[in-house]
Structures are given as C-alpha cells and as structure tokens.
Amino acid sequence: MKKNSITSVLTFTIFILLALAPYISYCAENDTIKDGNKLYTPPQSPQPRVNGPLVYGCRPGNPFLYRIPCQGLRPIRFSAKGLPAELRLDPATGIITGTAPKRGEYNVLIQAVNSKGKSKRHFKIVAGEKLALTPPMGWNHWYAHYDRITDKMMREAADIMISSGMADVGYQYVNIDDCWMNAPENSDPMRVGPLRNEKGNIIPNHHFPDMKRLTDYIHSRGLKAGIYTSPGPLTCGGFAGAYHHEEQDAHQFATWGFDFLKYDWCSYGQIAGKDTSIEAYQKPYRQMGNILKSLDRDIVFNLCQYGMGDVWKWGAKVEGNCWRTSGDLGFELDRIYDVAIRNSEFRQYSKPGEWDDPDYIQIGWIGNANKMGIPELTPMPASMQYAYMSLWSLMAAPLIYSGDMSKLDEFTLNVLCNPEVIEVNQDPLGECGLVIKLTGDCFLMVKNLVDGSKAIGLFNRSKTTTEVAVNWTDLKLSGKQTVRDLWRQKELGIYQNKFSTQVPAQGVVMIKLSNR
Ligand code: GLA
Question: What is the mean pLDDT of the chain?
Fold first, then answer.
C-alpha cells in the first residue's frame, strides 16, 4: 500500500515534470517570456520632472515654438528665467512661442511646479544657423498607415502624443510621410486627381482637405509638423513629387506651416540616370537644402536616399540635418543589431545638427512593410525592444516612432518613454556610441556624455541570458565608478575596475558610469 502510494506520487511527479519540461526549458532559454511581464521603466512620480533637450537651435527672426516636455501631475505651472524678450511662455501649458531672437546663446532656467513639488532644468536656446542640435524626436505615419493616411489620423496622432505622455519626454514632431498628394493612379479614388493646379501648386488629395488647418492644429498642441516629398517626378508610392517645382513646393510647405521635410530620392533615379558620381547624388539635396535655408521658417531637412554615395560624408554640406544610412528598416526588422552596428560605423559624422539615421522605431502595432499591412502587434521579443531603443539612444539616432498611435499600450510606452534613456539620446555632445566587441554574441556600445560620464549598453544577442562585463581598461578608465541602471533609474553602487551583470537573451542592460 505504502510502496504503491510512493510509486504513484513519483509517477505523478515525473508526469508533471515531463509535461512542463518544454515550458521550463523555454523559459530558461528565452528570457523574453519573463521580460514580457517586466516593465523596465519605473512608474512616473506625480512630482514634476522637466525633460527635453538642454540645447535647442533656431534661426533668428523665424517663428519659434517649443512645448516644454514635463512629466508629473497636472495642473503644472511653468515659468522661465532668462527667456529672450521676443519669446513668451504660457504658464499653464508650458508652450513657448514668439520669434527667434537675434543670433546668440540664451541660457534659460525652466521651472515647473505642481501640488507635489517642483523641478528645474537648464535650457540653452542657440539662435544661429543650425537646427536639430539634438536628434529630432517624434512620430512618422509610414510603418503604421502607409497609403491609408488621412488628416484625421494625423490629428489623432498629435492628440495621443500629448495624452500618452510621449510629448512629456520630448517627442515633438508629427510627420506625414508619402501619399498625402494625388497620384496619377491609385486603388483609392480619393487619392487620384490633378497633381497641380493651374499655377503649378501641388494639390493635396481628398484625405487632406486643408494643410494649413492641420498644421495649425498640431501647433496649437505645442507640437511640430513634418511633410514628405521626392526630388523625382513621383514619390516612392507613385504620388506627385517636387521635380521642376522644388522652389514652389518648399515655399508651399513653409506657407502651410511645416517644420520638417523628408526628401526621398525615389524616382529621381530616372533623372540622375547612370550618373553615380557624388555630385549627381548631391544635386537634388543641395538644391532643396539651399531653398529651405532661404525660407523664413525653421524646417529640419531629412535626407532619405538610403546611404548612396556615402551620404554621411556630405549630408551636412548640403544643409541636411539627418540622413538615412540604409534602406528601409521595415524590411529587415530581424536585423536591427546589424543595422545599428553598421550605422555606428559612421559615428564620426554624428554631431549636433548632423545625424546618422538608421530609420524609425518600429515597435507596438506596426504594419508589415512587405505588404504595407494593417498594424499588428510586433512579434519582437520584449528584451529586444528595450535593446532597439537603447541602441538608437546610444547612437544619437533620430527617435521617430512609427507605429499605430491609437494602439499604444503600456509596454510600448514603457520602452518609448524612459526619460533617462532619452537623455542619453539627446545629450548635447551629440556623440554616436562606439561598439566594443566582446566574446561570443555580446558587445558594448559606449557613448561619452557632456557631463564627463559615459552611457554604456551591455548587449547580448544570444538566445540565453549571459554574463556581460565592462572592464574599465577597455574604456580607458580607472578607479572607482558609480554605476546607474538607466532603464530602472536606480543606482547600482560603486564599482572598481569592472562591472559585470546578467544580460537577458537578445537584450540589454544600459548603465551610466560616472566618477562623482
Ligand atoms: C521609401 C522610404 C520610406 C518611406 C517610403 C514611402 O521607401 O525609404 O521611409 O518614406 O519610401 O513611399
């Protein structure tokens, strides 16, 4: 009887273990299961926390608009010391408007107060030639809505940028991509029509009834608006491009009130023909760069020509503020590590106002790029999504989210909205991190920050949790260093000679080293 019951308990236990074996080994192999339940970014405090860049470029005499990114319980009362006389701050919304002051640097001290406390932050306005002194942050419709984009969706994206808290950590641009114009032919009759009016002015399609009212709406929220075209006769989607109308279209964009232009090579290939000289690659961008610079509006210039002719070497010379270093990341989302490592090879060209752009952040609900699909939840493991955001932050890449804003969930916002990680991206030095290869599938990405500290990503590309170490000698450091976990926003302690930690499968631990 006793023997029988021991046998049956043993049999039962073995049965349960066998049944659970695949799950147990899967959990051990795949930390994403565990990570999926774990949000790295801690919950926001109700106290105010002013975020956003420490430096901000604008051109003297042009319209000025800046919404102070600030987390914390509303209502918040904003004030600013040292604001140039041409600018005024709305204390209730934190939106600064006016005309950019004369050439110079203006040191402003922003203060935010609510019932729980207060927060201060230095903000230097640099009125001069350069825009985008820190990498542009915002949203672009492409990987969510493709040729389905409408005015309504753009407004909704602006609303959600505010209501989700994205704007409170620095997201600012609400950018239309392709398909807002008319096309000679398209499956959607609302997008087919004359490309230009009798004066040659470009005509938006029926989904965009009034561009000026759209940008007014975006601006009224304190955000900025972006638009897209191609130097070729048609865009990549087959819609009207700017060829032979460059000056006219640029003026139109400025009159409509746009603040950002993505200029996408597309059918310009037919114009350039077989000429693959650097001059041929530069020609359309130099032309548009010069036009934009002559306008009385600050328009950030985003070059999109997939890296041809080593664009990183000359993008700034044609007045570009950022340039795509490769093809569409939507087609190779399984290769984000390789794309990032390659992008970081051009790190010497990354500096304030001049950014290498490895394409958008595609997490949350995104449409399959191969099918221009309806948004679906990304299959990317949770740990890899944190790694993706860490890589882009360490590389000082433009942080442009391109997923469905109406479906933003807690996890996706947790990845997108960690102010300490974003601060690394927005660091005024503008350095792109250096990759240090370690053994196996691990590597470090090291970025020097303006305060003398270093941000470091410890990356593990393998499918198992792995111990990864940072040795001070590899960083030309010595002695004691304070280590802070940036995702968890937590001091880990003081370390001598090295820091070592378990890094989840396909994931990251991101730290800051400082010797204070
Ligand atoms: C190209 C660009 C994409 C997107 C599409 C729009 O493929 O690289 O980012 O703008 O065109 O058609």
Answer: 94
